[in-house]
Specification:
The complex is a heterotrimer of chains A (339), B (353) and C (282). With 353 residues, chain B is an all-alpha fold. Chain B is built from 15 helices and no strands. In chain C, helix 6 crosses helix 7. The chains are: A alpha/beta (339), B mainly alpha (353), C alpha/beta (282).
Chain lengths: 339, 353, 282
Amino acid sequence: MHALHRRPLSLAAIAAAVLLTAGCASAGADAGQPAPQASDHAGGSGYPVTVDNCGTRVTFEQAPQRVITIKSSTTELLVALGLGDRIVGQGYPDGDIPGTIAGQPTGDVDIPVISDQVPGQEAALELEPDMVFAGWESNFSGEGVGDRATLASLGVKTYVAPSACKEPGYQPEKLSVDDVFSQIAEAGAIFGVPDAAEKLIDEQRSVLDAIEPVDGDVTALWWSSGTDSPYVGGGIGAPQMIMDAVGLTNVAAGIHDTWGPYNWESVVDADPDVLVLVDAAWNPADKKIADLQSNPATAGLDAVVNKRFVIVPFASTEAGVRNADAAASIADQLHDLGY
Amino acid sequence: MSQILTAPAGTRERGAALRRIPVAAWVVVQFALLVLSIVTAVTVGPADITVGEVWGSVLSHLGIGDTSLTALRDGIVWELRMPRVLTAGAVGAGLALSGTVMQSLTRNSLADPYLLGLSSGASLGAVAVILLGIGLLLPVAAFLGALAALLGTLLLASAAGSLTPTRTVLAGLAVSSFFGALVSLVIFWTASGDAYQEILSWLLGSLAGARWPAVAISVGAIVVVGIPLMLTGRTLDAFTFGDNAASALGVGVTGTRWMLLTATALLTGAMVAVSGSIGFVGLILPHMVRLVVGQRNRAVLPLAALTGAVFLIWIDTAARTVFDPRELPVGILTAVIGAPVFALLLLRARRFS
Amino acid sequence: MTSTPLLSPSSSAAAAVTEADADAALTARDISFTRDGRLVVDGVDCTIPVGAFGAIIGPNGAGKSTLLHLIAGILPAGTGASIDFDGSDLLSMRRRDRARMLALAEQHGDTDTALRVRDVVMLGRTPHIGRWRSEGPTDRAIVADALDAVSMSAFADRVFDTLSGGERQRVQLARALAQQPRLLLLDEPTNHLDIRAQLSLLSLVRAQTAAGLTAIAALHDLTIAAAYADRIIVLADGRVVTSGPASEVLTADLIADVYGVRADVLPHPRTGRPVIAFDTDS
């Protein structure tokens, strides 16, 4: 019964998702089709739910029960929504599931890993999933877990995290916190747990509200990978969103992409106050620090000399439920550095 | 049967006038152009530094006067731009030189320095370091990979009989394909997150990582291997009418061929080790030079080296500035520019069999 | 137009030596070569006096080209073989020294190169100039003389692959002459040439032998071989069948044995050299 009371609030979040995913659709597309669509059928609250996901329409007649997740961002989202037991397998993880998300413990979840890389079609279908939840659009390919049409014909629903859509009209103009929240809300609608979604959004929001952005103009470079040519956070993706939340100015904001290749000359020219270093298994933060110190051009950077490094784990940098925690951690590290 | 592209009939008058200019004059002109290019290219870049400040910085490092720049900005000029421009010149020269020698040795005008599987071998070394985390320095691993591929090619080519041009080409193709497949396998199997970005840059060919050690390797290779190679023009020309004619002219065919192939491989291997597989330079530059000075290798070799140096310096300058603040791997630009130029050569060639 | 001998002064004296002087000759003994298990040349002995024009004839596959390559040192001549030319042991010479003594002109009708004629002939100077030096005025003069000797001076600036077959062969001959050899080997130099070009080329060679050069040519046309050669070596299945002056060697019986065709051998009305009339009925 109290689900009905909560409905208007989650409908608001869903409406935001509608605006985002359907509002920018190209002319002649399903402009008149709001998504997701709740129905009054007696067959289950809120179902069937139809979403326009990166240009593909998917209809869920019931809550998915056997989900395969690809990439940590999707796994973590479901775990945070309390749906860890519905995951039959995860693929291509970026790291371990953290102990807490937005202040809430994730519990003792042990999700089997199908593959360290994108799982193949047979490996995935062997687990008899009813849904594949992918973190990148490219996961749905012939060499990957299968293309969306084939899986749909086999009765497997396919869904890409909306913030990872690359098509014009679906890719967020500039990723904002609300985009992440509407992604959570849409997942809540799909899985039939709108309350949990709303609660998670509130937790995320409170983490973000608790952040004290730095004073003044503090410049930073978000260095993700690459040695000869740094691959950095650009102006429209999750890195920019996180930097905005903590009050950092991105020296590479001119790159109109979520991440993009940059050059050391521009970095040295900008001499950022702080260096945000992404810690990944294939390119750890201490290797980045060693590279910065051994490269004679960057060894003299103010941030390198004074060791103003902020470390953030790779898995938390994809748009998802860990962004708020990442922002909070970065803010703490900045305060420790004196900002 | 060798396929040589010859100048079209219509340009014979213009060509004749060009050919009256002695080769020595061309060498002097190209050398001057090279010096000019180095001095100019180092003043170009995303950071806002004036020409005077750049030269002031360079001169101060050479011991003349002081720099007016802060230590960091001085570092941009001396630690980033200068080594990169010098490496670009050396790599361009080395690749053009290797391409010329390979085209003469195999009597095939479509040969390039990577014919012996060198680029695939070097790529395997590079992915081993970047993706598999093997604890070697990247240039060392790339060089070892190139040598491994060369060994494979030479063994395969000579196992089937004596080392003829055709067998060398075919063996090189086989080894290239094999190593290339291994590279793809490693990438497909292990690339996580955005590690593919780094390996992609390397495979496309990039000078972004060129620091002073890269200068030492590439310029060193030119001095130790490239300059002697430049002087083998007469020996290469002796092969014009085949192995028998070369032997009758007093050239030890087998020994010379092995020596030239090995020298080319060493030179190319060193270049690929510092810059990845930059394509088209080794293929196109020899043809461009031949259009102007004719077929004699004694003239083509030094001019190909000098022209290759100037060419790559400017293409790399474009790669790092045209798409500011993004940087393009230089191998993309050499292909974008090289392919149409090659098509133009094909269309205008009088005879192509 | 007189032909200019391209020989060093000391070699001209050799022209006065008689046939009886065994040293003044190319003497090859026991030359053998096996390829793919087949004995292509089998224990060949032959002698060509200095200043003579020798012809090697025989059916296809007799081993004519291979024999030339063996004499030129391109192929190994087998153990026990010896090749002496005018007192020098060719087999023990360094390759480059040998290239200064003998030159090989092959048929290259199908090789294209964009080199200029002048540069092709300059290739012949390779064994003299060596790897590191530059070509000098002497070399250029020798190249000019060689082109003059084959009447191709007007073509000096032409690109090689714009030339006709006959012209290319003459340039190849000029290249060989530019090597200043004392022994000239020619491998089927008249293939693909029209009759006028054939006669003209061989006349050039004969003019050179008259000035002291020793020439050995593998020829397939019996009448032409008879018209020009002082000495003929007949090869079949890698072995020498017979050798000697043309009028002695070329008989109807020999032609029947070696070539398997019937012919009549008649003396040329003016020169007296053998002319072969083939029997088309057989």
